[in-house]
Design a protein that fits this description.
Blueprint (H helix, E strand, L loop, with lengths): L1 E5 L8 H15 L4 E5 L6 H6 L2 H24 L13 E4 L4 E4 L11 H17 L2 E5 L7 H9 L2 E6 L3 H11 L9 E7 L7 H8 L4 E5 L2 H9 L2 H9 L2 H6 L1 H16 L5
Parallel strand pairs: 1-5, 1-6, 2-4, 2-5, 6-7, 7-8
Antiparallel strand pairs: 3-4
Length: about 270
């Protein structure tokens, strides 16, 4: 299953943070085979959050030419197989429970519609190899390939905030996007003290499924340092701590809600 995380606004909704929080919980807590990636060439915040600087630099030097070109060439020739796609990813957990599709592996000219079709081919093949492929999409609709991938995804998680302007912007744009199914809404940097509560947003947006990822002060530093996986792993392997920590408790609830909505868990 391909799940695309997207927002109408850049930087306001913590889209990458939300994606990683839910993807890591799915991999660590539910033992699902998870692939995370994005549709932008090169290195983004996603890789920097998961990989140390040394590993990031080392992998980039290996993949920015040979490996990335090989993946694209196989996809263009319709020779890419689900059994071998993990050869072009960065493994973070054993048994492909968490792999990263590096941006250098998708070094395409995405303004070219032919390259968008190649990217779709890569993602479709990946969904045969993994339980879930989480895709971090460029915000807004200015780029044609963003709209194409939104309409290609099995499910879209629309990332919002407790900002009325952001909520109104999505309401305005929603009808112009041909989603395969009703999108799931995710409130990033959620703060309980806000008057615009989860319940109020759910009512305003008339949505059957809304999840949230709370604000966490330390998470920004951990993403900059490449320590997010260690941070989540340390806590999800300690169930008792999870129940005492509101951030991890909320992320676990949101992950379960999303997976249940998609019929991946009971």
């Amino acid at each position: 299953m391909l799940i695309a995380f997207w927002s109408t606004h850049h930087g306001q909704t913590a889209t990458t943070t939300n994606l990683l929080s839910i993807a890591l919980c799915a991999a660590l807590k539910y033992k699902l085979k998870v692939l995370v990636g994005h549709a932008q060439p090169g290195i983004t915040q996603m890789e920097r959050a998961l990989l140390s600087e040394d590993r990031l630099t080392g992998h980039a030097s290996q993949t920015n030419e040979n490996t990335g070109n090989a993946l694209i060439r196989l996809a263009r020739n319709k020779m890419l197989q689900s059994s071998t796609i993990s050869n072009y990813t960065i493994p973070l957990l054993k048994e492909s429970r968490l792999d990263v599709l590096n941006g250098y592996s998708l070094n395409l000219k995405q303004e070219d519609l032919q390259d968008v079709e190649v990217l779709k081919q890569i993602l479709s093949t990946a969904t045969d190899a993994y339980d879930i492929v989480f895709l971090d999409l460029h915000s807004g609709l200015e780029k044609d390939y963003t709209r194409a991938l939104l309409e290609h995804a099995d499910t879209v998680v629309v990332n919002l905030s407790q900002n009325k302007m952001v909520l109104d912007a999505f309401i305005e744009k929603k009808s112009s996007i041909k989603f395969k199914c009703e999108p799931i809404l995710c409130i990033g940097r959620y703060q309980k003290s806000s008057r615009l509560t989860e319940k109020a947003i759910k009512k305003q947006m008339s949505t059957p499924c809304l999840v949230k990822v709370p604000q966490h002060t330390s998470l920004i530093d951990l993403m900059n340092e490449g320590n997010v996986l260690e941070f989540f792993g340390r806590h999800y392997y300690r169930e008792r701590f999870e129940k005492k920590h509101p951030f991890f408790e909320d992320v676990a609830k949101s992950t379960h809600t999303l997976l249940k909505q998609l019929e991946l868990v009971k």
